[in-house]
Write a structure and sequence with these properties.
Elements lengths: L2 H11 L17 E4 L4 H18 L3 E5 L8 E7 L11 H8 L4 H14 L10 E7 L5 H12 L5 E8 L2 H12 L6 H17 L13 E5 L4 H10 L6 E5 L14 H8 L14 E5 L6 E5 L9 E3 L1 H20 L1 H5 L8 E5 L5 H9 L3 E4 L4 H8 L4 E5 L5 E5 L1 H17 L4 H15 L7 H15 L3 H5 L7 E6 L8 E3 L4 E4 L3 H9 L6 E6 L6 E6 L3 H19 L6
Helix pairs in contact: 1-4, 2-3, 2-5, 7-15, 7-16, 10-12, 10-15, 10-16, 14-15, 18-19
The protein binds 1,6-di-O-phosphono-alpha-D-glucopyranose (G16).
1,6-di-O-phosphono-alpha-D-glucopyranose binds next to loops.
Catalytic activity: N-acetyl-alpha-D-glucosamine 1-phosphate = N-acetyl-D-glucosamine 6-phosphate
EC number: 5.4.2.3
Pathway: Nucleotide-sugar biosynthesis; UDP-N-acetyl-alpha-D-glucosamine biosynthesis; N-acetyl-alpha-D-glucosamine 1-phosphate from alpha-D-glucosamine 6-phosphate (route I): step 2/2
Length: 562
């Protein structure tokens, strides 16, 4: 590192002292904490993003968001050149950097890292970092801190994209690295045109009863509602009413609204109620990377029927499987279909047991990873088509480059020899799905459009979709503890190996309940231990979750349940 670079880093970092007595770690989705202590962390992640850009000679993304967390929190995460999450082998460096005590130590750590990774800092070509934020009030000043970090690396340039959904930023990083144009309009154009393509391919066209068929979307008082308003002006054949769009200062981000609230509490979000009985409703989270659907079943209760990420996954899997099966019939016709697509499903321990049983009954290969899209995404990328979803509504469908190339060639051949055939249409549908669904990360807006297109294709109501299988009753709780890192898990988070004895105690509770299943894990986005329980009745699931939450409190908490 040359002297100019060193003194630039020393002078800028002295303006961003780290918070005292706080240890930060790059968790499930980057750094998250109360926004008031994040200036220094965000500045330092700006440096990291610039180094990553120099190292990869690609465009990198920085998103300022705390997604589903409360409005006073904020956070930052890095999008890699592929548009996916930061390569996991850089996470330890992110931790070290965020926790460096003073400018001298910080510069020393950077110099050491640059040398180890052989990052050609001196004389580096100009590199670009795309920066965006969600609608949190703290976002603007944190973007400034990120820009200061970025410009502390010579040759690195920040490009501020303003307010975006998290998936838009990831999409734009991916697109920029493919040499494509990136703006709100480019993103909306791709989504709306691929949606139109899927709708045009519906057998027999759109059913007349669909014309009045309305979808009501809860925007979590965040960025998603606002963007959906823009997107829907470019869509035909879809009636969307947006509520909780956060405009005009009405409603607080994620408070009594949004996908996390709806999925965990299983009650109607604010602004929804008796008027929505039987209607198709959906909820986005604060930065629109999660999507769940729900039905308000009765006027007399605030309970909902949740159609969660597992059901979205199942709907996508059925549709993809159907297209693959139509396409494979070509083998019989031409004898020259030379490729069998490997379709894989990825879930986490939170997946409802009934969903996994259902997917396996469909003959699909299902694998499990720890929580966090970074893990699911990596696994799904091993397949030709990998579908991953967390029950909380975070997920997408990945198409391998190899398979897409095969599909494009096949579509061209079919268009010459069998234009308009079922096989040709199935190939076109798969290509349209690959354009519609965000290949970088789970995306609630593209997810809504794909769900809507598939329901129209199937001619299904939300009730019909919800009946694919019946969820096992479940309950999720969170427990405040002194140190959540005391819980270490293995086997895709189904077994807690520390603290000693806690897994045995959990097992002893679980066996008391028919179809009981329970696990604990430290959250990577909030300062809590999460408890998930499933059983044959709701009372049993509640009771199992409560007794294990008490155990967690006894082992690690403040003793309130002793
Ligand atoms: C983030 C991650 C998700 C994860 C969720 C909860 O979501 O992207 O993969 O499921 O946090 O994580 P944890 O249980 O570790 O707190 P989001 O929507 O908040 O970015």
């Amino acid at each position: 590192m040359n002297e100019e670079q060193r003194s630039l880093l020393l002078s800028s970092s002295s303006r961003f002292p780290p918070p005292q007595g706080v240890k930060l770690s790059y968790g499930t989705a980057g750094f998250r904490a109360d926004a008031s202590i994040l200036q220094s962390t965000v500045y330092r992640v700006g440096i990291l993003a610039a180094l990553r850009a120099v190292n990869t000679q690609s465009v990198i993304g920085l998103m300022i968001t705390a997604s589903h967390n409360k409005v006073s929190d904020n956070g930052i995460k890095v999008a890699d050149p592929s548009g996916g999450m930061l390569s996991q082998d850089w996470e330890p460096f992110a931790d070290t950097l965020a926790n460096a005590r003073d400018p001298e130590q910080l510069v020393h750590l950077i110099a050491e890292f640059v040398e180890n990774k052989k990052i050609a800092l001196d004389g580096a070509k100009s590199v670009e970092i795309l920066v965006a934020r969600d609608t949190r009030p703290s976002g603007e000043s944190l973007v400034e801190a990120a820009k200061q970090g970025i410009s502390s690396i010579l040759g690195a340039v920040a490009h501020d994209l303003g307010i975006l959904t998290t998936p838009q930023l990831h999409w734009m990083v991916r697109a920029r690295n493919k040499g494509l144009k990136v703006s709100d309009i480019d993103y909306f154009k791709q989504l709306s045109s691929s949606f139109r393509c899927l709708v045009d391919l519906i057998p027999g066209g759109i059913h007349p009863s669909d014309v009045d068929d309305k979808l009501v979307v809860d925007g979590a008082n965040g960025v998603g509602g606002e963007k959906l308003e823009l997107l829907k002006t470019m869509l035909n054949g879809l009636v969307i009413e947006t509520r909780n769009s956060g405009k005009g200062g009405g409603g607080v981000l994620n408070e009594g609204v949004g996908a996390d609230y709806v999925q965990k509490e299983k009650v109607v979000p604010c602004s929804f109620g008796p008027q929505d009985v039987g209607i198709r409703c959906a909820s986005l989270d604060g930065d629109a990377d999660r999507l769940v659907y729900f039905i308000v079943p009765s006027r007399s209760s605030n309970k909902i029927e949740l159609v969660d990420g597992d059901k979205i996954l199942s709907l996508f899997a059925i549709f993809i499987k159907e297209q693959l099966s139509i396409l494979s019939k070509e083998i019989d016709v031409n004898g020259n279909n030379d490729y069998q697509c490997r379709l894989g499903i990825v879930q986490t321990a939170y997946a409802n047991g009934a969903s996994t049983d259902y997917l396996k009954q469909l003959g699909l290969e299902v694998t499990f990873t720890p929580t966090g899209v970074k893990h699911l995404h990596e696994k799904a990328a091993e397949y030709d088509i990998g579908i991953y979803f967390e029950a909380n509504g975070h997920g997408t469908i990945l198409f391998s480059e190899h398979y897409l190339r095969w599909l494009e060639t096949r579509t061209t051949v079919l268009s010459d020899v069998a234009k308009g055939s079922e096989q040709h249409k199935a190939a076109l549908r798969l290509l349209a799905v690959s354009e519609l669904i965000n290949q970088a990360v789970g995306d609630a807006l593209s997810g809504v459009l794909l769900v809507e297109a598939i329901l129209k294709h199937m001619g299904w109501s939300i009730q019909r979709w919800n009946e694919l299988y019946q969820d096992l009753p479940s309950r999720q709780l969170k427990v405040k503890v002194m140190d959540r890192t005391a819980v270490v898990t293995e086997n895709a988070e189904t077994v807690a190996v520390t603290p000693p004895g806690i897994q045995e105690a959990t097992n002893a509770e679980t066996v008391k309940y028919p179809r009981g299943r329970c696990f604990i894990r430290p959250s990577g986005t909030e300062d809590v231990i999460r408890v998930y329980a499933e059983a044959s009745t709701q009372n049993a699931a509640d009771s199992l979750a409560n007794s294990v939450a008490k155990l967690v409190d006894q082992f690690l908490g403040f003793g309130s349940s002793k």
